[in-house]
Fold this protein.
Amino acid sequence: MPAAASPLADQHDQHHWWQPVAKEYTGDEDRPLGSYLGVMAGYGGLVGGIALVARRLGATRTPGVLDIALAGIATHKISRLITKDPVTSPLRAPFTRYIGTSGDAELMEEVRGTGPQKAIGELISCPFCIGQWVATGFAGGHLFAPTLTRLVAALFTELAISDFLHFGYSLAEEKQQQAG
């Protein structure tokens, strides 16, 4: 009589079909596909949770054009702060390695590790990647706390506008010095 299969053996057999697909996709590159699936599942759970709570509470507010514009600009700024700012580097440190600076008040880092460490490192060091999560936070905020969400969006939009003015001022100074 065969011994009962252990849960670990079952788990291995269930994931066995995925190994050739992952190997063929990644080749010799370290692409933590399983960890990416975990990150995607976390995001799906977050969105599903927001939708479920909104439905139960009857929260159906749709943001207006101004709210969307403010949140869009604020999402840009918050994404840069999370992924590039020196002050937020302790959040990224377990997942990235400092390389140097990449511009005014921004750091250049490389992702390190494997599996979940690498997947999270790629998420929190990429402004395009983390932007989706930030925008989702604003979407949830518009449903449950629109006044506070507008205030936060306005604050970070003002900061983004200020950043662009600083860059424009610096560029104008450089051009003036070059002219003479």
Q: What stands out?
A: The chain is about 70% helix and 10% strand. The two ends are 92 Å apart (CA to CA).
